[in-house]
Every structure is written in C-alpha cells, then in structure tokens.
C-alpha cells in the first residue's frame, strides 16, 4: 500500500539507539516470527537490544522494519507496534519530555531533539489558535515501508502524548493520504478518533488548549539535567571518525559556499569515485555529511545570533532562503523561524 508521496533517495546512516528494534522484535516474537529471522543481515542479536548505549544506523532499523512487514504485513502491524512505544522507550529524551512544564514545551523539546527518537516520518507542526496540526512528511521513506511507518509513528506519538498527560490524548482529527485499509478500526481504537483516508496530506490535530495544561510529572531540576544530557548525546552522535570526519571538517561553507565532492576528493588526494565508495562503506555520503554540517551551523546561528533567515541561508551556501527553509524543515520538522522561537520561549515562574 503506497501513499501519494513518492520515495526519494536519502542517506539513512545517522545513528540511533536499539530500543525501537527491541520493540519490534518483541512484537514479532509474540506473532510467531523469531528474533533471528527479524534480525537477519543486521549483525544484531537479541542480547544487545537491552543495551541503552548500543548505537545502530537508521538503515539497520529499516532492515528490521522490512523483515517485519514481509512477515506480518503493514496493515495490522503498524498501529499495533506503535502502541508499544512508551516514554521509557526513548530513554533520557523521553524523561526530558515528561518533566517539561506543559505539553507545548514537551512538543517544542521533541522537535528540537527529534533525531534522538525513532521516527522515520518527519513532522511539521502548525500552531493554530484553536487547533495544533502536525503534518507528516515521508517522501524519503522507502515506498514499501511507508504505510507501516506512518501508522507506527503517528500511533506512537499519540501513545507518548497520552503518557505525558497522564490520560488518553484527544485528537481532533487524523487524516491519511492512503486508501482505507482493512484495519481502520484498529487505528480508530489506537487514536481515539475515526481516521479519514484518501486525503491530500497525512496529519493529525490536537486542541490548542491542551498545550497549556501542566504536565503531572513536571520537574524543573530533572528537566534541566535531562536537556543537558540530550544536548550532549546529540553532539556525540554527530561526531564522525575516519573518512567521514575528514570530509565533514572540510564542508563548512566559505564565502563561495561549501566545496564540491570533486574538490574534497582532490584535497584528500583521491578520485571522486574512490571517495564516494569509501563514504558509502562508512554508511554515509557527501550529501548526508553536508546536511549534518549545515544543520549544525544553522541551529547555532538561529539560537545564538540575530542573523536573519535570509542571511543564514546565504552563509550556508544557499542562493536564497526558500531552499534553506525546505531543508531545515526536512532536518528538524519545523521552520527556522519556529525553531528560533522555541529557543526563546519564556520560562514559567520558578525557572520553568
């Protein structure tokens, strides 16, 4: 089953934890699919799935997802797996969200550190006066996995938001750019609202009033500690070694923009073909590393300088702001202006 978006090529070499794979292995085992069958070709064993420090690349999780879809199908498995994600699944990132003052603050934090989660679909949040809409983008997700991952990611978000609130989260609507599936009733039960299908976009909404309600486990000291650990974890995950590090350190844009792949290869005294092959062996690519560098610099400039979005786009080597804004939304799920606002959100009394 395929949505209206067409899959694009994307580098899935960025790191993540193994907890999400553990969730899928557990589900598969309960439905007659053994762990070795699900983990075939990944180099993983069931024993490592409980290690909170174990890192894998996103394409490894996609291998597990594909094995699960082939064994059990996307229709029933997507929503069912999504319901198994809890705040605790996300480790320190989850604790940072649950100790936030309000749901709005938790959502802003989640967007800021979205790479610490397990979603493959990218959310774009629109803050309205009466309703907050979250649109899902998944064009870069392999077409055969889109329906499973769209269901999994949206249902998981609903479950986590319910955990944050301490009660079932109320969706105002859920719309899917997919034909109605046999498991529509399963999605209704999981989301608490009857979904609509064959819509132009995939999205869900929550009442804006829900965002200002205090979260039951809010704790300023714990929140500050968890956010600091999230920040450190992102920095460690972005660290590169070997050929990837050699390329990455050469990609910071100069006055004429970032160097081309050919120019980097020449500086490293190798052919472009050899460099491309070595990067692929390291699980990354020139485009993926350039995105990393641009995202890192963009976030720093948005958070720490008064530079306009237009000026930042030029600093990063874009000819104009529009392609930069599109790229930033792909990286973070939000716009540069909205990201800057989340860094400047006034704290509540008492430091929150």
Structure commentary:
The chain has about 350 residues and is α+β, with helices and mostly antiparallel strands. It has three domains: about 15-70, no CATH class; about 85-240, no CATH class; about 240-345, Orthogonal Bundle (Arc Repressor Mutant, subunit A). Helix content is about 50%, strand content about 10%. It is built from 16 helices and six strands. The strands form two sheets. Strands 3-4-6-5 form a four-stranded antiparallel β-sheet. The chain has a two-stranded antiparallel sheet with strand order 1-2. β3 and β4 form a beta hairpin. α1 (about 20-30) runs parallel beside α3 (about 60-70) and α5 packs antiparallel against α6. The longest helix has 20 residues, at about 145-165. The radius of gyration is 20 Å and the shape is globular. The model is unreliable at about 1-10 and about 345-350 (pLDDT under 50).
Helix and strand arrangement:
Elements: E1 15-17, H1 19-30, H2 35-39, E2 55-57, H3 58-72, H4 74-82, H5 91-98, H6 103-112, E3 122-127, E4 131-137, H7 146-165, E5 173-175, H8 184-191, E6 202-207, H9 220-238, H10 242-248, H11 261-267, H12 272-281, H13 286-304, H14 309-315, H15 321-332, H16 336-343
Antiparallel strand pairs: 1-2, 3-4, 4-6, 5-6
Helix pairs in contact: 1-3, 4-7, 5-6, 5-9, 11-12, 13-16, 14-15
Keywords:
alpha+beta; Arc Repressor Mutant, subunit A; 3 domains; four-stranded antiparallel beta sheet; 50% helix; globular; disordered N terminus; disordered C terminus
């Amino acid at each position: 089953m395929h949505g209206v978006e067409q899959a694009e090529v994307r580098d899935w070499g960025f790191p993540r934890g193994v907890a999400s794979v553990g969730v899928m292995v557990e589900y598969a085992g309960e439905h007659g699919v053994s762990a070795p069958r699900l983990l075939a070709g990944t180099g993983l064993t069931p024993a490592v799935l409980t290690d909170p420090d174990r890192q894998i690349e996103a394409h490894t999780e996609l291998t597990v997802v594909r094995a699960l879809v082939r064994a059990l199908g996307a229709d029933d498995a997507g929503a069912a797996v999504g319901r198994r994600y809890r705040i605790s699944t996300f480790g320190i990132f989850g604790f940072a969200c649950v100790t936030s003052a309000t749901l709005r603050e938790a959502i802003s934090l989640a967007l800021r550190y979205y790479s610490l989660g397990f979603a493959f679909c990218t959310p774009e949040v629109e803050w309205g006066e009466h309703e907050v809409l979250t649109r899902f983008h998944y064009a870069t997700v392999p077409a055969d996995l889109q329906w499973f991952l769209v269901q999994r990611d949206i249902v998981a978000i609903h479950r986590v938001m319910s955990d944050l609130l301490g009660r079932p989260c109320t969706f105002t609507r859920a719309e899917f750019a997919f034909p109605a599936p046999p498991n529509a009733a399963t999605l209704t039960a999981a989301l608490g609202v009857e979904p609509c299908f064959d819509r132009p976009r995939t999205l869900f909404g929550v009442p804006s009033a829900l965002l200002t309600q205090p979260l039951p486990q809010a704790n300023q000291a714990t929140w500050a500690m968890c956010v600091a650990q999230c920040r450190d974890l992102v920095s460690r995950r972005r660290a590169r070694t070997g050929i990837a590090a050699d390329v990455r350190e050469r990609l910071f844009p100069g006055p004429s923009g970032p160097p081309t792949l050919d120019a980097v290869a020449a500086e490293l005294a190798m052919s472009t073909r050899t460099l491309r092959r070595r990067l692929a062996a390291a699980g990354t690519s020139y485009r993926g590393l350039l995105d990393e560098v641009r995202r890192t610099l963009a976030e720093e400039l948005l958070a720490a300088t008064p530079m306009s979005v237009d000026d930042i786009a030029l600093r990063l080597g874009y000819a104009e702001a529009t392609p930069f804004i599109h790229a930033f939304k792909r990286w973070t799920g939000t716009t540069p202006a909205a990201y800057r606002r989340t860094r400047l959100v006034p704290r509540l009394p008492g430091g929150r």
